[in-house]
Amino acid sequence: MTAPSLKIRETAILESTHFQKLLDGLIKRGYQVVGPTLGEDAIVYDELKSVTDLPIGYTDEQEGGKYRIKKQNDKAFFNHTVGPHSWKKFLFPSELRMWKAKRNGNTFRFLTDNEKIKKFAFIGVRSCDIHAIFIQDKVFTGGKFADPHYKLRREGIFILAVNCGKAGGTCFCASMNAGPKVSSGFDLALTEILKNDRHYFIVEIGTELGAGILHEIPYKIANDEEKYAADIVVKKTAEQICKSMDTANIKDLLYKNYEHPRWDDAAKRCLTCANCTMVCPTCFCTTVEDVTDLTGEHAERWRKWDSCFTMDFSYIHGGSIRSSAKSRYRQWMTHKLATWIDQFGTSGCVGCGRCITWCPVAIDITEEVSAIRESEQTTEKKTTEGLEEQRS
Amino acid sequence: MTIKRKPKLAIWKFASCDGCQLSLLDCEDELLAITNRVDIAYFLEATSTVRKGPYDISLVEGSITTQHDVKRIQKIRQNSKLLVTIGACATAGGIQALRNFKNVNDFISLVYAKPQYIETLDKSTPIANHVPVDYELRGCPINKRQLLEVLSAFLHGRKPNTPSYSVCIECKRRFNVCVMVSCGIPCLGPVTHAGCNAICPSYHRGCYGCYGPMETPNTTSLSSQFSQLGLDKDNIVRTFRTFNAYAEPFRKESEAYEK
Questions:
Q1: Which end of chain B has fewer CB atoms at under 10 Å, N or C?
Q2: Which residue of chain A has the CA closest to B31?
């Protein structure tokens, strides 16, 4: 290899024709390579063996309750935004057997699964989703007790990030300080450029590992003009984002408004179907099911994704605490945006917009927040006006 | 806790198509394990040999449509320690409850050559309208996995895992792409009881609600979304009027669009 070795934060150029070599390098190192690929009606995350598994030339169009894939007249690899899947699909399985047990006379013995997980290489991780992974890290491994299943999958992953070349119709990462530019937490970060029949990537080095992998394939050092082209891409994407959430004093705002009439309004629309929590890249709730077979000789414990939108979720002796849709929607949104901050020191929302796109009835978390904020401002204004009237 | 004596199992049929009973026969691989653990004492679909009650567990298929049915289900209840209704007919009145929306006599004269021979009740109703039911298994038909789960739970004295949340949760756990959001296909998944493991959306079809209403169905919000997807009033009525047409949340929603 003639190219000079790369240092962290340096940028290089990778021609699209060499992208396969990057995947090969990861596969050769034993990674299970997963990333965006064309599913039946969406760009989903699944195993990638070849560059042709990427959704080449496809993009997506999104709005509340609506997602469509669209073929374009280009060869772009990553000209889409985030889809129905998130990386928790791999790090936090939706259904997981925790143990098996076998009856042994009057007692029983545990049969633990020796989980062997091939290290993951995530291809095409967006800034919002890197933030989401780091939020789930806090949830699963940040406290006194780390979740061994999550830890096993999370440790040693390779993150090939991508700066978004377009904003989706439901994206609001910028206002959540989670994008669109990838700022940290990656091994390599790409910006895709298609210009004058040339298709290449500007690659920012995030780790020694990333540098090592890139060093094995043909690349060159990026010049100033190329670096500038990458900045322009992210800048344009940021300008395209049309949704935002005003997070100023959001904790106080929501804590002060538990009885706001907007919750009733949301409850009228909310299906309590739990889709928002399933697609959210940070939602982490699970339920545990114990099962036996007919003979009673075998038992298993399964952990499955659960949701604060189910009645069982808040069931205690006597019934469910959150029996109304209002209380469940309020719980979800207030946890995501406010109590999460008290619990984990960060917001639970990264502005990926999945909960808006994949809500069958298009409930928009940013609109719910602004409705509460606006009416509060009106109330405050009225109060101030009232005071002024009294004074005069 | 394991019951020492083999519990006696009975399977009863009322107005139904027999499909749910067939789910038991469909447990081919598990059938031997079932007969090793329970004593199948009454199952006309499988054998004409019948033994008298009382029964430890009765599985009841079908809805109540005649005065004779009303008396028979009461007798079965008296003879059963545990009564489990299986399928949409037994839990909601079934597809035959479509007649509940009209005058039954209008149908009788159309369907039968000699209507005077027909003795029927006004409405097709679920078993729970007539006798206390210990457990309900949803679906048209039920799925054998859930049936085995209920039998296993009964045999070992534990609570069965048959959650009443939406089909969407099962659908998303399978990483299906939502057919309603990605293709605009009307899907009853958000208001439908889980249990089928989202079989229809997994084959790229909208859920048609054969498990009936989930625990807290917001049918009003979903049907207004159906309107936005282009479904007219008649089609919304039809969407809610299938196997669980007479389950209250579905019935009310279809009636709201019929006006």
A1: C
A2: A294
